[in-house]
Amino acid sequence: MSDDIPPERTAASAASKPIRILLADDHALVRRGVRLILDREPDLRVVAEAGDGAEAVEQARKGDVDLAVLDIAMPRLTGLQATRELVALKPGLRILMLTMHDNEQYLFQALKAGACGYVLKSVADRDLVAACRAAMRNEPFLHPGAVTALIRTYLDRVRHGEENPDHLLTPREEEVLKLVAEGHSSKQIAELLFISVKTVHRHRANLLHKLGLHDRLELTRYAIRAGLIEA
């Protein structure tokens, strides 16, 4: 087995502990495939798995992990929402987004949330290992298309004197929006978030006002555009 591993990498991995990785994706088959890619490297080890963003946060809270590899589109908490919580919970934790979406909006939101890399699932077998190692060196990792998107967007903003407004919603409003868009009732949302139904109604009213929307259908469409849920 070690015949395929360069001697210098084998020596380096023997001298240091493997990078402990938390892997979160709501598809078990995807997790299995990604784990195979990571665990075959001597310096990488998946020590925890999660099927959604909320479980990922809980796993990070319970165990010692160095790096979280998160899918973006997951139930309960998206990878983006989980990233924000993980950054607050464990500031030293490195976070990579692993996604099928080659989407500028997701890219910008991921970086803003605190992710240090953005890897496409379609090329995970080529890029993911390098991205993990870069993250642990505190270096950003972006696929070439993402770098192009960042440069293009920056130049467009400079050229037109425009800036994208910061995210309009508070983290709690975003949680309520996601749950509303997923079809939960106000009572269910109150139970899930441990708040009162009255507070849920207030958040919904604030959402409609801030976003200039009128009903649940428009909130759902906004949530899809914002990457909170999948269409």
TrEMBL record:
InterPro entries per record: CheY-like_superfamily, NreC/VraR/RcsB-like_REC, Sig_transdc_resp-reg_C-effctor, Sig_transdc_resp-reg_receiver, Tscrpt_reg_LuxR_C, WalR-like
Domain Response regulatory, chain residue ranges per copy: 20-136
GO molecular function, a single term: DNA binding
Cross-referenced SUPFAM superfamilies: C-terminal effector domain of the bipartite response regulators (SSF46894), CheY-like (SSF52172)
Ranges for domain HTH luxR-type: 162-227
Modified residues (4-aspartylphosphate): D71
Protein name in the entry: Two-component system response regulator
